Protein 1
Amino acid sequence: MINRVANRLLSVGGWGATLLCLTILFLPLFVLVVFSFNRFPYGVFPLKGFTWQWYQKLLRNDNIVRAILNSIYISSFATIAALILGSLAAYASDRAIKMKVRFEAFLYVPMIAPGIILGISLAFLFHLLNLRLGLWSVVFGHVTFLAPFVFVLVSASLKRFDRRLELAGRDLGATGRQVFWLITLSVLKPTFLAAALFCWTLSFEEFIVTFFTIGSDSNLSMEVFSKLRVGVTPELNALGTLQILVAVIVGIWVSSKLEGVLD
């Protein structure tokens, strides 16, 4: 009897804790979505009616549209570069190169270093080399902390990789290049997809490193930061809602792709 009551209390407590966590996570997003459709330009209750005007105003704002395009450019190029560099580093490390432990420790530094330290270091480096800051410098800065994440993810997959697949390919007459492209990369496709999505998301929302390396250009995080100085506007609520919608769509698409690859 006592055990039954204790188990029920634990079950109720577990569900209560889960509900509390979900509320903390999703309540701010729900409020943001609701106020993006509110006719009244201030975030206060009660609501004054439904409207699409903030979305229309957002899409007519050339500065925000340009900032979004710049963010997409930065995130895409930074993700591609990080995937290439991080994957090559993981592959080299997995092949038991000399000083493997020190090599891995060196790669972890940009990942665990505070963003403000990394941003200041990059800004000082560009100034020392007399290089003009711009979108390319932001891409370079993002790659420095994205590549280690790719390295960690790909390294973990390579450690679980069954080497007998490569040996079987070689026994069947495949060259080293064919084994790499047709076997190794095929097995690592889910990891590459997950790493790409993770890096793209980190790059898209990164602010601190961007702040120190973007110069006179602007991207979405910088544009939002400049607008937040005067408070949260309905346009920002609309922008956040669109980002949530895109995140949900991309999440569903990636999940379906991963299921297809794993099957």
Note: Residues 220 and 226 are 10 Å apart (CA to CA).
Protein 2
Amino acid sequence: MDPAFIACDFEQARMNAVKHQFPRAKVIGCLFHFKQALRRKMRKLGITEREVNIAMEEGAMDELTTIHQFESVRSGIRNVQCTIREECQDQGIAFSTEAWAKFWKYFVRIWI
């Protein structure tokens, strides 16, 4: 078996094992597990459930998976930040500025 692509969750040990077993395959993380990990971190940092729900809606966090290599990742992150902040404002939801700042530091450190 010589797969070109393998999808799995974002557990680093699993991804390493898959890459070791199939060195020519491109390992692709699962969107469900990606968003699940982000949701857990948001809640752990004290971001409200309403804010998290906005971030998990189509067109917010999932946009970060479609940034092309030639585009600026930081620009993509800024766009998502604005989308979440504006949607919170539109819905009259307080935006947890400090918690979101911690989340984005985590996101860049772990996922970029």
Note: The longest strand covers residues 5-8.
Protein 3
Amino acid sequence: FYAPWCPHCKKVIPHFTAAADAFKDDRKIACAAVDCVKDKNQDLCQQEAVKGYPTFHYYHYGKFTEKYD
């Protein structure tokens, strides 16, 4: 979860992109980025209790396991 204006998010983009690219062929791992500034994503960001940016959520078989922010 990120905001385009966030300086910390801008710093992590190359690392996140590299990780997503490294796992792109692994069907067990999915990487996604959610822009919490966009109106269409605000409900999801509230539901996931995103308080700061960037925030990383880890899921195992669709169940939330860990948060890093």
Note: Residues 7-68 form one domain.
Protein 4
Amino acid sequence: MLDLRPYAYLIPLLPLSGFLLELFFGKYTWRRGGIIANILIFISMLISFGIFYNLYFEGLPYTEYSWQWFYPGIVLGVVVDPLSIAMCCMVSFVSLLIHIYALGYMDEDPSKALYFAETALFTGGMLGLVLSNNLIQLFIFWELVGLCSYLLIGFWYYKP
């Protein structure tokens, strides 16, 4: 099977891009939101399970991929080890189930594109938290998950 470990950076990046796409274009898609985030989280789940297969069944070693973010030496990266990939599989699978259920549950809500954008951001933050390879990146994604929790708890801020 194809070695998918070099594509591990796409696991959190796809839901994060789903946040931006749902935020700006979610109202104009079929069913008025949710489809873009569902597709990108599904692709993220497929990559997670592909890397899981690479690590557990093909016996490929775990690795770490790093990229220089800014000039003074801030590094971003992902750690591809059995525990982080198992968590990515679980997080992306549960998130996809939540998104599929929410397609029907949020069908009549006028701001469901915003809901799907927030849940995609939450998923991307959680996956980035699991795959982070340094404390700065861990802190950034931890704060992102906290912000998304706040936004999702207060999503229905009005009383009908």
Note: The beta strands are 63-68, 75-80.
